[in-house]
Amino acid sequence: MASVYRRATGSYEVRFFIESKQRRSFYPGPRATKKQAESIGVKLDKLAFARNQSESPSLDVAEWLLTLPEKQHAQLADWGLVTPRESQSAKEPETLRKWIDAYVKRGNRKPGTVEQIEIAGNNLCTFFSDHKRLDEITKGDAQDYRVWLETKARKVPKDEPERGLEFNTVRRRMGRAKEIFADAVKRKLIPESPFHDEKAAVGANTERQVFVPADHIERCIRVAGCEDWRIMLAFARYAGMRSHETRIQRWADIDIPNRRMIVRSNKTPPTRVCPIFPELLPHLMRAREMAPEGAEFVQSRYAADSNIGTTFTKIIERAGLVPWEKLFQNLRATCETELLAEYPIKDVSSWLGNSAP
Fold first, then answer.
1. 243-296 per-position pLDDT tens digit
2. What SS3 string covers the chain?
3. Nearest 5°: CA angle at 63, between 57 and 66?
4. Of 246, 238, 215, nearest to 311 (Cα)?
5. Which of 41, 76, 182, 198 has the least C-beta neighbours within 10 A?
6. What's the CA dihedral at 99, 104, 108, 112 to 10 degrees?
């Protein structure tokens, strides 16, 4: 017959015999009362008796078993008193599309990050199919996926030959795939990630690096159709701002008399202090003079996430120049190159908001 003992911690322990010499200890939990522990002891005796007689447990015992937490039920199964519950691994495996959609919804991510994960997820589903099971994707499949990204993933008109993505874009997509499958490993949906050994570090692509001379951007500024574009181009070339940063700066953060400004960003760090360099100063003074009274933002025509590449290309062509690769990125990189020739890398990294490497 089961016995109930009070432990030093204040919780109860139920001791009972499965057979005459097989004593077991069952712990109802820290919040169980003595009366509840005694009731559980009675059920355990009934369960042991039914097992020894090769009978099914009584209705009240069967109902109690349904409410047991997984850990306690698994303990009874180890003792041979009940049939093990269906394990997580025995359930229907997760499909690729279902898992990616669930992964996208979790976490506190910025909209741009969510968009990049969705793009990478669409690539995965295009190559493997929406209904591909996670546990069916092998390391060899991951290698084939990389080859597909490199040779066929780019969308092109039907009459053009298949093309792959750029070197760094491929690595970013592989990095997102590693991220997606690593989370599946953490949640024990798969034993290991097929993308674990794939390289995803982004490196410099010298073929797309262009030094944009100051006189080129001055020509663009002269033919730009509005002051918003003029100051955006000046911010990018003479302050090394990212594309979105050129559109979210506030007049309250710009101290022209002391030649310094606080640069706001949607990346980390969200703000940084940067000098107002001599090349930028006349453009800022002109923009300040032409700004509407009470204006909050230095430019107010475009949102931070606006796609302005097409308009920028037209401005460059209007200036009689040939559009260069990575329009805003190369303006920022050109500014950084010039600053590094004159200032310590630690200072330049702080002003432009990136790491020294």
1. 999 999 999 999 999 999 999 998 888 999 999 999 999 999 999 999 999 999
2. CCEEEECCCCCEEEEEECCCCCEEEECCCCCCCHHHHHHHHHHHHHHHHHHHCCCCCCHHHHHHHHHCCHHHHHHHHHCCCCCCCCCHHHCCCCEHHHHHHHHHHCCCCCHHHHHHHHHHHHHHHHHHCCCCEHHHCCHHHHHHHHHHHHHCCECCCCCCCCECCCHHHHHHHHHHHHHHHHHHHHCCCCCCCCCCCCCCCCCCCHHHCCCCCHHHHHHHHHHCCCHHHHHHHHHHHHCCCCCHHHHCCEHHHEECCCCEEEEECCCCCCEEEEECCCCCHHHHHHHHHHCCCCCCECCCCCCCCCCCHHHHHHHHHHCCCCCCCCHHHHHHHHHHHHHHCCCCHHHHHHHHCCCCC
3. 105
4. 246
5. 182
6. 150
Quickly count: other Cβ atoms within 10 Å of residue 142's Cβ.
Answer: 19
Beta bridge partners of 263: 272
For the CA atoms of 347, 348, 352, 353, what is the dihedral angle to 10 degrees?
Answer: -50
Per-residue pLDDT tens over the stretch 109-161: 888 889 999 999 999 999 999 999 999 999 999 999 999 999 999 988 888 88
Residue position matching structure tokens 């940067």? 274
